[in-house]
Write a structure and sequence with these properties.
Blueprint lengths: L11 E8 L2 E7 L9 H8 L9 E6 L4 E7 L4 E2 L3 H15 L3 E6 L3 E7 L5 E4 L28 E4 L3 E6 L8 H9 L9 E9 L2 E8 L3 E3 L3 H13 L6 E6 L2 E8 L2 E6 L2 E8 L1 H5 L2
Parallel strand pairs: 2-3, 4-6, 10-11, 12-14
Antiparallel strand pairs: 1-2, 1-17, 3-4, 4-5, 6-7, 7-8, 8-16, 9-10, 11-12, 12-13, 14-15, 15-16
Length: 279
């Protein structure tokens, strides 16, 4: 366990990271206590008056470490693959480890490794394809949902609704994503993906994340889309997915779904006491 630092009362450290433009504020409560409330999350997420992020990640003690995720609207998220990779990359760089076991609140223990090419990969676990596991509001064939556009439902700790379309650029993602997030078939709301088959084992995808909106990339959404594509017979189990922010590689193996791609630790900063007092 790391030694807790006793900082002056106006010193509230955080890190800014991103994976393919899917950006995060990360706070490490192993180093200093950090009280997280819905109001604080929403204020930090404000890109004009706060710091701005798609998700907030809070690190605490665990097997190697524990991560709890929050969406920009203050709600919790059970999984965030890109943030998990970013945090794993930093942790391995600091400790010299080439593998980690990360406890993710709501998803269980995930394994992360540093690949020989220097890219961080995370095993996001096994997909959930039964309607109760996703979860859906009623018994439904998850491979063909009774929603216009014939989407697929997949659980990756959080629910996903994946549409396969001819041209993702033609989709009004803001309008359709916002409406579908709250579809009554998804009692916990859902992430929404629109994917286009580009070539053999190659997809182009755009994503709307529940509690956040349009994002440049999403790791759990990429995993769900790869699973949906394979179940539909569109791809094999190893898939390249091009998102608005870059490319992720998904490999659905016997031990779970491995996701790899670039990470970035952009800067470290501190929140002021006056900002916290204004909440």
């Amino acid at each position: 366990m790391r030694e807790m630092q006793h900082q002056p009362p106006n010193h509230w450290p955080f890190m800014k990271m991103h994976g393919l433009g899917n950006d995060f504020v990360v706070v490490d409560t192993r180093m200093q206590a950090f009280d997280v409330s819905e109001g604080l999350v929403r204020a930090l997420a404000d890109r004009h008056r706060g710091v701005g992020f798609d998700q907030l990640a809070v690190i605490s003690d665990g097997t190697d470490l524990t991560i709890t995720f929050y969406n920009a609207d203050g709600s919790t998220s059970a999984a965030c693959g890109n943030a998990t990779r970013c945090i794993a990359a930093r942790e391995m760089a600091q400790t010299g480890a080439d593998a980690l076991r990360i406890d993710v609140t709501g998803r269980g223990t995930l394994n992360a490794v540093m690949q020989p090419d220097g890219v961080t990969a995370v095993n996001m676990g096994h997909p959930l394809t039964h309607w109760q596991e996703v979860p859906l509001a009623q018994e439904t064939d998850t491979l063909h949902l009774p929603i216009d556009g014939d989407p697929v439902a997949t659980g990756m700790g959080n629910p996903h609704c994946t549409f396969f379309v001819e041209d993702v650029a033609a989709v009004d993602l803001a309008a359709r994503g916002a409406a579908l997030e709250h579809h009554p078939l998804f009692p916990e709301r859902t992430n929404v993906q629109f994917a286009q088959l580009i070539g053999p084992d190659h997809l182009r995808m755009r994503v709307w994340e529940r509690g956040t909106g349009i994002t440049l990339a999403s790791g759990s959404s990429s995993c769900a889309t790869a699973v949906a594509a394979h179940r539909r017979g569109l791809t094999g189990r190893t898939v390249r997915i091009d998102l608005d922010g870059g490319t992720l590689h998904i490999d659905w193996r016997a031990d779970g779904i491995w996701m790899s791609g670039p990470t970035a630790h952009v800067f470290d900063g501190t929140l002021t006491q006056s900002f916290l007092d204004s909440l």
